Amino acid sequence: MVIGKSFAWGHMGKTGGDATWRLFQCVPDLVERAHDPTDPAKHRRFVEENVQGKTLVLNLRRLPSLTLSYVNHARFHGLGPDQPAGTEITPEEALEELRAERVIRNHTDRGNLTIHRWLRMEHLREDFLEFVSTLRPLTSAEVQAVRAVTTKKPMPYDHDPRTFFSPDQIVQLYENSPTWARYEREVYGDLLLPEAEAKAAW
Known about the structure:
The chain is α/β, with parallel strands linked by helices. It contains nine helices and five strands. The protein has one domain (about 1-200): Rossmann fold. A five-stranded mixed beta sheet has the order 3-1-2-4-5. Strand 1 and strand 2 form a beta hairpin.
């Protein structure tokens, strides 16, 4: 978590959190305290910190891509003692695990907290710059520094969720994760549904 005088940003897994931490290093005067990226406490929830009255900020990512990232993180690095490195998760298992739904419910205290700002992983630098510019004016050097930040190398897998999930499974994934789907629709304006289902959704 990164906490400033007027805001608190929560590190929600697999949404570009370590990259966002690096972006905050470009405007260090805005940061009062922050968990190091190597510290597991970086994933602490808002309800576990003193953030009353602050603007609450979270990253967000398209659900099928996020779920695919979890699947491959389990394969390359593991997801804990029950899922060590080398764990193969099938599409069917991913649909039932509902990790993204549990994570977002935890970070929003089951919807009881209002998230005031969302940073889309797919547009992270732009959304970050837009957010921090509401805290104070940015210098051209700071903007350039944010745009120049390098992120860690992506894991070597096919990042297109359509090669892992069938169209029906993507629909089911959203149906199984209603909280995530609600926020994604609010932030992005739609869901990453197959074309026919996307048209029907509207």
